[in-house]
Structure formats: structure tokens, C-alpha cells
Design goal:
heterotrimer; A alpha/beta; B alpha/beta; C alpha/beta; A: alpha/beta; Rossmann fold; 6-stranded mixed sheet; 8 helices; 12 strands; C: alpha/beta; 10-stranded mixed sheet; globular
């Protein structure tokens, strides 16, 4: 069993305040792990640190992604290597067309991996097919990235990007928050479609309900910047019933 | 020294409909002769028993003023002012310095009554011992430093404030009792030569309020002062100095009305605020001085310099103003955001009706890191009024992370008025962000019709819609003022529709 | 309100102007220009309208009158129906494909739209008025696209040239003018064109300008447009060149239901200062105006935008909108912005907005997290920022030219 992501003793601070206080986590290839925790436990910080966001200072520890030193890479290098972050709050990019953005991103990654770039026609064919599966109207390609999108549309757009970019490791940062049941299923279907021996996912969530649709191999409980418990999918149910306070104690 | 002219002026009450506070009071006044020169300044200083340094300070201001030119850049028009044809010192005649409120001229108390000051301080002003200590009708206590013409005649709530170590008195008293504080801070935010009117004020200011809030003290009541101009041809040159020491909080209210006059009257006040580390000063103004009649006769010239210095980190200065009065308003309450993470705010409603002119706005100087400022200005023009927002946002190169947001909205009522917006935005810092928005519109016919269909008169409807337009600003006012301000908006727009 | 204090610094210019031969048609114009220069000089920062752009340093410069006539730069085929060419400040009939008409033919209307006493750029131009383009399109005709080029070559000395262009469109006439100005980076020359534009009822003028003067050049320019009833003036200006540039547009909507669109981009790098100053007068009812200006600053660059919308009492049901935004890409850049509304009519909808800031780090991170390299991500965001200013431009050729110019600017070092 080879390893997709290995986190060892990771500590990270934001504006001088330590948020992650020593995280150890191993995600083997082909597995989906859920990270659950109360608000402020460091879930989003972990996602940002893995994606390489500025302002998140790693003070100790190491992270390897398929054997490479992830923390030494620029955000775009991580993306090209196959790390995809589905944002909790996807940013709006007025003036940047969605289609242009998607194609630029896809080709930048392909270029970085030494693969041939897709021309406009090839890309559109790909994009249209994926959009159909996600139930997204085609006009969303013409609009500015996430501009004027509803909460659900933004999340769907994240899943579309994930489908098009076919990452090796998907990190879903509370992608389920604010979604109705239909949208939730679309997100879950998007992840499940990618599942396979060369794909792993970190599903970060506050609630158990997304995990009904994306059944994780492992569940980790993050409290106060540390993983305090790990277990099988049944741990999520236990959390739902007993709350974080009980489990933490 | 020139001879002191003692005059007893009996001014007849001239009351017309339209301005309900158009009256004068009959009080003995002690005048210095008309005109402005070094001797007059020496007279004022001696009369107020000031120390030598303050006289020197005044004389220096006078020397600077003489070399300055009256500013002409504002979008206001008025005939030339003859500065030699005005009195620079007028004090209500009292037996001596009032030692207690019993000694206050009963005429003065009646004046406050007529003004409809919405405070129960009438009783306190009348000298009833301890009357102010228990808030009545659930209203928060308000301490008043009443200014009648140029001399502060009564100060209340002294004991309660003294317990907290708060100093709230007239600036003349502060000069006597706390000279070290006055000397340290006077002119530190608005220097003598800052501008023409500030220089004039520095030379001849006669009174005003002084506030010092000690470290860590939250002032337990709103501090308040009411100004009136009452003696014929007497310019008022108030000087207010408020210092909030580290970690303290104070909310200060300033309100004024003035009696009806034919002659234009000059008012050139200076207000200086200093907020040290973690201190907050909230300064609210309702300005309702005589605006002149429908043809533009009479009315106050209100040329005011107000500026606050956020000297310490995380300090905050918030200006809120409702300007409905005066023939001409020229004022730009400003904030110098020197301390890191300091905050400046300016919330303004300015109404010009009939022939009124207002050129008002603010200046926000971002110097410290992560400083923030918010500007919300609502201008309403009616009749033949001219209303200008003029503002400056300047971000210096070191003000990393600075933020400004400005919203200026103008409302026009009628087709003979003007609404103008002149913002200056200067950004020299990569990591700063400045946003400015301005709109101009009128009250929509369908809004008016909707209100009238529900039974409101056209004037009521306009009042309602205008109050809605100003809501963002009015909600910043302390409760006592908010109610008064809403009434004032409606009164100020009387006769503007139909 | 805008009282201009007397400044006595234009003596050099005055001497040069007086030394020129004066054709009879230019006498009045030249005299008015000289009088204004003598009385007001070149404005410094104490003059409110020049608060952010000081022209006094120009007074220290010594410029020569263009002789020109020898250089024949290689040019591609005209992009439009006709081309008019200035080389080294001289109008070259031999290289133009449009018959050159002398200014004397329009002498009666010269200076009609300018006020030299209060417009220093127009005053300077008037004092040296010599040559220019005259374009008159008769009523009902569509003149298509005309190119106006100014090229300064390496052979030109420190010349100063002040062309005066007159464009008059009859009722319902149409014209697209694609204007371009360029020169070598090492030459300190002055190009100061003035446009006098009169649009009769229902006329439509699209005016696209590319200012890519050399980096040592001075570019002063003022457009004066009188827009008739139901007529449309559409101006797009790209400013990327010159060491000091001031682009003034004075437009007046004089008939009902006219429209004026003024859009532009200022792309500035190390040591450049560019100023766009617009003054739009709504003088008639039911007119529409739209302005979108974008400035991008790299290195020690300084951008200025001043824009005034004046709505007269009779201009009821005016719809006016103005937006100016600046993007700072370096620590040393500075942007000064002064939008202005002056409104005397009540039934109007007028607004303006201004923002100044850096690239949004959240946006940048989002792009990078999708695998787009930092530089490409920055370019995408800058392009998106500028896109809004180009939105209103329908002409595909003009659009392509501008987009190419934007990309070229981005590729060159700051």
C-alpha cells in the first residue's frame, strides 16, 4: 500500500497565533479520509497549509505528497502535482470568464506535467460533458468566475473544476456547508466518480451528513489543532450522537 | 490698554414664523470695543486672567492670521467680512464668577427653556442641589457645559465626574486649574497657522469646553454643551479640547441654536480631539443655527475647524454631524490616523434649504498601519440651497493595510438647488485599499405617491423619506440627539415641496 | 472657483511662438493663445485643475519647431479606408491616403470650442497652431474607419508640435477614427494635439486613441467635443507612453438624448506620470453618459484621474455614471483620484465610484491553487481588471488593436 499524503508533527500559525499543534496523518492511495471537528479547531487552516496559502506559517513538521516535499512547493506546483482544494468560500473573479479560467488552469497543469495542451474545441467538449453530468447550465461558462453565483452554484463550480482537473488528492473544505440535499449529492457524486486506486481525498466537514454520501475509509477528529481520535466511518456517527465535547473527553 | 466699554444692550425680540427659536434674550453684556488688534487680544487674555504663555500663543496666532488670506476655494459665496467691525469679547454680565448655579441669571434659564433643550438639566441649571444625580424617566444622564455667548456659566454633574477623575469644565477654567494639560495639547492638532479661521480663533477664542478622561476610564455619561450666539455682532470663537487618555472612552454632544438676526454673524470655532492608545472619542453635533430667511437675509456663517488625532494604537475617533442650520457651513471634521490600527469615522447629514450653502466633508489621513476609515455623507438640497461634499482620503506610503470606504449620497428636492461632490483620493501604499461611491438622486414620484396614498401629507412624506435617506447617519447619534435630529430634518425642509 | 493664479513661466514658449510666421487665418487663434500663456503661464500644482500634474517643468525645456519632411517610416497597409500621417511633427500629404485640407478652410470655427484662458493645453496649442487634420463628413454618410498616425523618428530633434484637428459630422453621419501616436524612447519631444469635434444631430463618432509616445516624451492632449441631439461620441483612450502625459476631454451634451462614452486605460511603468482629466457637461435633457477608466501602475509610476460631471438645470432626466479604478502593482506607485459631481437639476441619476488598491491576494491564491503560475495569474487578473473599460467598444478592429497593445505593455519590463 503506497502513501498519497503523509503529515508529520505539523504545526502552523496564523498572525503569530498557533492553530495547528502537531498533526500526524497518513492517507494511503485510494482512501478517503474525513476530518471532523468543531468550529475553530483548525480544519480550514489545515486545508490552506496543504494548498500553500500565504500567511499560514508552518512552524514545525513536514508534509510529503507522493514522496515529494509538499511544503517546499508553490501553490501552483502543488496543483500541478495533483492537489486540489475545493474552497469553503470560492472567490469571485470579475472580468475573468469561467471558460477561460478553466482552460488556462487545465493547460497550465498539463504544461507543468509535460502533457499536451488542449485547444479551445477539445476543452469545450470536455467541459460541456462534465457540466451536463453536474446539471450545470452551459451559460455558466460565459459568466465571470463565481460572479453572481449562488452558494450552491459556487460549490458546483468547484466540483466541475475538480472533475476537469482530475486531481490525485482532493481536499474538500466544508464543501457541504450551506448546501441543500440535491447539491450535496452532486458534490458527493463528483468525489465518488473520481474514487479509484490512484485517488485520495480529505473531506473536511463539521457535520456527518456529507459522509452518508461519501463514505470515508477513516475518520479523524480534530480539536484544538490536534487529532484527538481516529477511527472507522462509525466514528462519524458517534460524533453526531455524542457531540465533540464527549468524544474529546 | 483701551478703555472697557460697558454697554447695556436691549435687543428686541424679532420673531417671525418659520424659525421657532428666533428670539433674543435681554441680558447685560460687557463688551470690548469693536475691532481686532493686539490690544484687544491683550484685553481678552487679561480679562480671563491668563498666564503669559497663552497670551504669547494668541499673539503669535494673530501675527500669522494677519499674513493669511481668507480661503476662497469652497463652493460658497458671501459678501466680504469686515473683521474690524465686530466685537471679539462679550460676556454675560454677572456679579462675579458664578460660584453656584443660584447666581446664574434667570433670563438664561428661561432661554434654555425656550430652546427646548431635551434635558432635565433645567433643574440642575437652576441650581437644585443634587438634582442631576438620579436619572429621571430612564434617560441616561447628560452633563452640560452651557455656553452662553462666550463664557461658560454653568457646569453640572461635576461631582460624579470628579469621582472618576474626569475633568469637564470651560477651557478658561482649565487654563487656570490644569495649565499643564492645556499647554501640552492646545494647538497640537490644529496649530495656530492651520488655516485662516483657525488662526483667527487661536488669537481671540473666548471660551469653550475642556475634557480630560483619565487612563482606562469610561465616561459614565454623555458630555454635552450648547452654544448660542446672542449678543449683537459678536462673533463666537469657541475652543474645545478633548483628551482621551489610554484606554478611555467618551461621547461628547454639541448642539446649538441661535436667535434670529439681520446681520450676518461669524462663528469660527476650533475643536481638537486627542485619542491615546485604545481610547475612543465619539463627537456628535446637531447644528441648527439661524439659517437666514427665505431670501437669504441674516444667518450664521459657520466656519469651523474640527480635527482629531488618533495618536495611540487602536484609538478611534468618530464624528457624527447633523447640519441643518447656518447660512453658510464650512467645516471638515477630520481624523489623523497616526496610531497603528486606529479608526476614523465621519457620519454626516447636511441640509440646505432656501439660500443656505454648505461646503462640508472630512479628511482622513492614514499614517499608521492597518488604519481604517469610514465616511458616510448624506447631502440634501432644497429650495435654492447649494450643498457640497468635499473630502480627502490620503494614504501615506507606510500605511500598510489601510482601508477606506466612502459613501456620498445627494438628494435634490426641487429644481433650483445644487448638489456637488468633490472627493480627493490619494493613495501611495500598495497594500492599502480605498473605495469611494457617490450617487445623486431625487425623491421618486412613486415613493411620494405611495406615502400619500397611505394618508401622509406631501411634507410628511418628504420628511419620512429624507429620514430614511439619512438613517445610516442618524443611527450613529446618541439617543437624546437622534429624536431631536429627526424632528430637525423635517423642520428644515418645511416649505421645500409643493 | 477655479481661479488661476498668475504664473509667469511661459516666456520661452512665447518667444518661440512670436518667431513663427503667422498666416492670416491663424492670427486670432495665435493671439488668443499667446495672451493666455502670457497671463496664466504653464500651470503648477497651486492651480486646482493641475493639483496632481505640474506642467511648470515643461517651462524649463527647450523645444524646436519641427522641420521634418525627410523621414519615411515603413508602414503597413492602412487599416481603414484612409490614413493621415504626421512624421516628426509635420503633416505628410505625400504619405497620407486622405487629401490634406488646410486649416484655413475651417478658420471660421477654429477655437470655437476652446477657452484658452482656462485651458492651458488649448492655449499652448493655439499659440503654435499651424497644421492639423480636417475631417468633415456630410450628413447621412458613413465615412468608415480613418487612421490618424503620428510617428516621431530617431531623426527628429527635441521638437514640439501642436496639431489642431477639426472633426465635423453632419446629421446622421458616422466615422470611426483610430488614432495612434508613437516615438523613440530617448527623445524629449512634446506632442500637444487639440481636437475640436462637432457632432450634428444623430451623428456617431467612435474615437479610439493609442498613446504610445517615447518614454522621455511629453504628451499633452485635449479633446473638445460638442455633441448634438441624439448624437453619440464614443472615446476610448489608451495611455501607455510618455514621461508626462495629460489627456483632457471636455465634452458637452448640447442636444436632447445625446450620448457620451468615455473609457480608457492608463498603463504606466517606471518614471511615468499620466493624467486623465475629463469634464462632461450635461447641458440638455435626457442625455446619457458613461465613463470607465482603469489605471495600472508598475514601478515608480504615478497615475491621476480627475473627472467632473456637470449637470445644468435644464438637463433633466440625465443619466450619468463614472467609474475609475486603479491597480497598484508596486510599492512605489501612487494614484490620485478626484471624481466630481456638480448637479443643478433634480430629476437626474448620477453616480461615480473610485477604487484604488492592489491585486486581491485571495483571487491570486485561488488561481494559483488551480495550477496557474503566479505571473500568469497576475496577468489574468490585470487583464480582467482592464476588460471592463473595453466592454463598450464594438468595433472589432479597434478592439483587436487595443487588446494587442495591452498585451504588449504587459510583456515589456516595468
Amino acid at each position: 500500500m503506497s502513501i498519497m499524503l503523509q503529515i508529520e508533527g505539523l504545526r502552523a500559525a496564523v498572525e503569530g497565533r498557533e492553530i495547528l499543534r502537531g498533526i500526524d496523518l497518513t492517507v494511503p492511495k485510494g482512501e478517503v479520509h474525513a476530518i471532523m471537528g468543531p468550529n475553530g479547531s483548525g480544519k480550514s487552516t489545515l486545508a490552506y497549509v496543504l494548498a500553500g496559502r500565504e500567511g499560514y506559517e508552518v512552524t514545525a513538521g513536514r508534509v510529503t505528497f507522493e514522496g515529494q516535499d509538499l511544503l517546499a512547493m508553490e501553490p501552483e506546483q502543488r496543483a500541478a502535482a495533483g492537489v486540489f482544494l475545493a474552497f469553503q468560500y470560492p472567490v469571485e473573479l470579475p472580468g475573468v470568464g469561467n471558460a477561460n479560467f478553466l482552460r488556462t488552469a487545465l493547460n497550465a497543469q498539463r504544461r507543468a506535467r509535460g502533457e499536451p495542451e488542449l485547444d479551445a474545441m477539445q476543452f469545450l467538449k470536455e467541459a460541456r460533458a462534465r457540466m451536463k453530468l453536474l446539471g450545470m447550465p452551459e451559460e455558466m461558462l460565459k459568466r465571470g468566475v463565481n460572479v453572481g453565483f449562488s452558494g450552491g452554484e459556487k460549490k458546483r463550480n468547484e466540483v466541475l473544476q475538480m472533475a476537469l482537473l482530475s486531481p490525485r488528492l482532493a481536499i474538500l473544505d466544508e464543501t457541504d456547508s450551506g448546501l441543500d440535499i440535491d447539491a450535496l449529492k452532486i458534490v458527493a457524486d463528483g468525489v465518488n466518480a473520481l474514487r479509484g486506486p490512484e485517488f485520495s481525498a480529505l473531506v473536511i466537514t463539521h457535520y456527518q451528513r456529507l459522509l452518508n454520501h461519501i463514505v470515508p475509509d477513516r475518520v479523524h477528529v480534530l480539536v484544538g489543532g490536534r487529532i484527538i481520535r481516529s477511527g472507522g466511518p462509525e466514528l462519524a456517527l458517534e460524533l453526531e450522537q455524542r457531540g465533540y465535547g464527549q468524544v474529546a473527553a | 490698554m483701551p478703555a472697557v466699554t460697558e454697554t447695556i444692550e436691549t435687543v428686541q425680540s424679532v420673531t417671525e414664523g418659520g424659525y421657532k427659536w428666533g428670539f433674543t434674550t435681554d441680558i447685560e453684556t460687557e463688551f470690548a470695543p469693536k475691532g481686532l488688534n493686539e490690544d484687544i487680544i491683550r484685553f481678552i487674555s487679561r480679562k480671563k486672567e491668563e498666564p503669559e504663555w497663552l497670551l504669547e500663543w494668541r499673539l503669535k496666532a494673530f501675527a500669522i492670521w494677519q499674513k493669511m488670506e481668507e480661503p476662497r476655494w469652497a463652493a460658497v459665496r458671501y459678501p466680504p467680512i469686515n473683521y474690524q467691525d465686530a466685537y471679539y469679547y462679550a460676556a454675560p454680565k454677572t456679579k462675579a464668577k458664578p460660584k453656584s448655579l443660584d447666581e446664574v441669571d434667570p433670563e438664561l434659564l428661561r432661554t434654555y427653556e425656550k430652546l427646548g433643550i431635551p434635558l432635565r438639566e433645567q433643574a440642575i441649571l437652576a441650581g437644585v442641589e443634587g438634582a442631576g444625580e438620579v436619572p429621571a424617566e430612564g434617560r441616561a444622564p447628560v452633563a452640560v457645559d452651557a455656553v452662553f455667548d462666550s463664557v461658560s456659566v454653568a457646569t453640572t454633574f461635576k461631582e460624579r465626574l470628579e469621582k472618576e477623575g474626569i475633568i469637564f469644565c470651560s477651557i478658561s477654567e482649565a487654563v487656570q486649574k490644569h495649565p499643564e494639560l492645556v499647554r501640552q495639547y492646545l494647538g497640537s492638532v490644529v496649530p495656530q497657522g492651520d488655516n485662516f479661521f483657525a488662526a483667527l480663533n487661536s488669537a481671540v477664542f473666548t471660551d469653550g469646553s475642556f475634557v480630560y478622561i483619565p487612563k482606562g476610564v469610561r465616561c459614565p455619561m454623555e458630555l454635552s454643551t450648547y452654544f448660542r450666539i446672542n449678543a449683537k455682532s459678536t462673533g463666537q470663537f469657541e475652543r474645545t479640547l478633548i483628551i482621551a487618555d489610554a484606554g478611555s472612552y467618551v461621547s461628547y454632544l454639541e448642539g446649538c441654536t441661535a436667535p434670529m438676526r439681520d446681520e450676518h454673524q461669524l462663528h469660527a470655532a476650533v475643536v481638537e480631539l486627542i485619542a491615546l492608545e485604545d481610547a475612543t472619542i465619539k463627537y456628535s453635533t446637531v447644528q441648527n443655527w439661524y439659517p437666514g430667511d427665505a431670501e437669504g437675509r441674516g444667518g450664521i456663517y459657520n466656519f469651523v475647524t474640527k480635527r482629531g488625532l488618533c495618536r495611540g494604537a487602536r484609538s478611534k475617533i468618530s464624528w457624527t454631524q447633523v447640519e441643518t442650520g447656518s447660512a453658510i457651513t464650512w467645516k471638515y471634521p477630520s481624523c489623523i490616523l497616526q496610531g497603528d490600527e486606529s479608526v476614523g469615522e465621519f457620519y454626516s447629514v447636511a441640509i440646505t434649504n432656501n439660500r443656505q450653502q454648505a461646503d462640508t466633508g472630512t479628511k482622513m489621513f492614514h499614517i499608521g498601519r492597518n488604519t481604517r476609515s469610514t465616511i458616510v455623507s448624506k447631502g440634501i438640497s432644497a429650495g435654492r440651497g447649494q450643498n457640497t461634499y468635499r473630502g480627502l482620503v490620503r494614504i501615506s506610503p507606510k500605511a500598510h493595510g489601510a482601508r477606506n470606504f466612502t459613501q456620498c449620497d445627494s438628494l435634490l428636492i426641487g429644481n433650483e438647488c445644487g448638489a456637488h461632490t468633490v472627493p480627493y483620493i490619494e493613495n501611495r501604499c500598495l497594500t492599502a485599499k480605498v473605495e469611494h461611491e457617490a450617487t445623486t438622486s431625487r425623491i421618486a414620484e412613486d415613493q411620494l405617491f405611495y406615502c400619500r396614498q397611505r394618508g401622509l401629507s406631501e411634507e410628511e412624506a418628504v420628511g419620512l423619506i429624507v429620514n430614511g435617506f439619512c438613517r445610516e447617519v442618524l443611527k450613529e447619534l446618541p439617543m437624546e440627539f437622534a429624536v431631536e435630529a429627526q424632528k430637525l430634518l423635517a423642520i428644515s425642509l418645511e416649505g421645500s415641496v409643493g | 472657483m477655479n481661479a488661476i493664479a498668475p504664473i509667469d513661466n511661459a516666456r520661452g514658449f512665447l518667444r518661440a511662438a512670436e518667431a513663427m510666421p503667422v498666416p492670416a487665418w491663424a492670427e486670432g487663434l495665435r493671439a488668443a493663445g499667446r495672451a493666455a500663456l502670457a497671463a496664466r503661464g504653464l500651470p503648477n500644482r497651486r492651480v486646482e485643475a493641475f493639483k496632481y500634474t505640474d506642467l511648470a517643468p515643461l517651462a524649463q525645456m527647450t523645444f524646436t519647431r519641427p522641420e521634418g519632411g525627410r523621414a519615411a517610416p515603413a508602414l503597413g497597409a492602412p487599416r481603414g479606408r484612409a490614413r493621415l500621417l504626421f512624421v516628426d511633427g509635420v503633416l505628410r500629404g505625400d504619405l497620407s491616403t486622405l487629401p490634406v485640407r488646410p486649416l484655413s478652410e475651417v478658420a471660421a470655427v477654429l477655437g470655437e470650442l476652446t477657452d484658452p484662458m482656462n485651458q492651458p493645453l488649448a492655449a499652448l496649442n493655439a499659440a503654435f497652431a499651424e497644421a492639423g487634420m480636417v475631417l468633415e463628413v456630410p450628413a447621412g454618410e458613413d465615412a468608415g474607419l480613418v487612421e490618424l498616425l503620428s510617428i516621431v523618428t530617431d531623426e527628429a530633434g527635441p521638437i514640439a508640435f501642436h496639431p489642431r484637428h477639426v472633426i465635423r459630422l453632419g446629421a446622421g453621419a458616422r466615422l470611426t477614427l483610430l488614432e495612434s501616436a508613437e516615438g523613440p524612447d530617448h527623445l524629449a519631444y512634446l506632442h500637444n494635439p487639440v481636437f475640436e469635434i462637432a457632432l450634428a444631430e444623430g451623428a456617431v463618432l467612435t474615437h479610439v486613441r493609442l498613446q504610445r509616445e517615447g518614454r522621455a516624451a511629453f504628451f499633452l492632449s485635449s479633446v473638445h467635443a460638442a455633441i448634438g441631439a441624439r448624437a453619440t461620441y464614443d472615446n476610448f483612450t489608451l495611455q501607455a507612453g510618455a514621461r508626462l502625459a495629460r489627456n483632457e476631454i471636455h465634452a458637452a451634451l448640447q442636444g436632447p438624448q445625446g450620448a457620451c462614452h468615455m473609457n480608457g486605460a492608463q498603463l504606466l511603468g517606471e518614471g511615468q506620470h499620466a493624467d486623465t482629466t475629463t469634464s462632461l457637461h450635461h447641458a440638455a435633457p435626457e442625455c446619457t453618459s458613461r465613463q470607465t477608466y482603469k489605471t495600472v501602475l508598475r514601478g515608480r509610476a504615478r497615475g491621476v484621474f480627475q473627472g467632473k460631471i456637470l449637470v445644468s438645470r435644464e438637463a433633466q432626466r440625465t443619466d450619468g455614471y463614472q467609474m475609475n479604478q486603479a491597480l497598484l502593482l508596486s510599492e512605489e506607485a501612487e494614484m490620485d483620484s478626484k471624481p466630481q459631481l456638480e448637479i443643478y437639476a433634480d430629476d437626474v441619476k448620477c453616480s461615480h465610484g473610485a477604487t484604488i488598491g492592489a491585486l486581491d491576494p485571495d483571487q491570486l491564491f485561488y488561481l494559483r491553487a488551480r495550477g496557474i503560475p503566479q505571473e500568469q495569474a497576475r496577468a489574468m487578473l490585470v487583464e480582467a481588471f482592464l476588460a471592463e473599460a473595453l466592454e463598450g467598444l464594438a468595433d472589432p478592429l479597434c478592439r483587436a488593436v487595443l487588446e494587442e497593445a495591452l498585451q504588449q505593455w504587459w510583456r515589456q519590463p516595468a
